[in-house]
Amino acid sequence: MEITDFQVRSIRPDGTIEDISWDELAGFDIETNSLGPFAPDVFWVLHGDERGYIIPQGAKGDGALLERLQQLPGFDNEKFIDAMASTSEATFEIWRKTNNTEQDAALKDQP
Fold first, then answer.
1. How crowded is the C-beta side of 30, counted as CA atoms within 13 Å?
2. Are strands 25-32 and 90-96 parallel, antiparallel or unpaired?
3. Which band of pLDDT confidence, cut at 50, 70 and 90, is reported for residue 39?
4. At the top level of its lineage, which domain of life is listed (predicted)?
5. Are 46 and 68 in contact (CB under 8 A)?
6. Which of 20, 34, 35, 87 is most buried, judged by most C-beta within 10 A?
């Protein structure tokens, strides 16, 4: 996973490239299931206005991505912790972009 000032970008094992720009990012969810520990059971979902992509927990670079996401205005750390502890089928809404000029300015000012 590559995280820049402009986007998050991943290259899947099959060569597929997925990315989303910070300007385009509209939401962040965590989806969990009950398949762990023998199969992936936590997925980070980045939503854009028109598209998005799913990142399995433990993907290379997920720590850096989390640090970046936690800088988003309104990021809900308590929901993030609840999601990471979940062992059932669930979707946790961690962050949503609002139609807020201050939030838009903060997104653009992030490193």
1. 24
2. antiparallel
3. confident
4. Bacteria
5. no
6. 20
pTM over cut 0.70: yes
**Are the C-beta atoms of 54 and 47 separated by less than 8 Å?**
no
Q: Where residue 9 falls among pLDDT bands split at 50, 70, 90?
A: very high
CB 92 within 8 A of CB 32: yes
At residue 2 the predicted structure's pLDDT band, cuts being 50, 70 and 90, is very high
CA–CA dist 56, 18 (Å, integer): 13
**64, two tokens:** 């850096």
4 CB contacts (<8 Å, ≥6 apart)? none
105-82-69 Cα angle (round to 5): 25
Q: What tokens were used for 28?
A: 């962040």
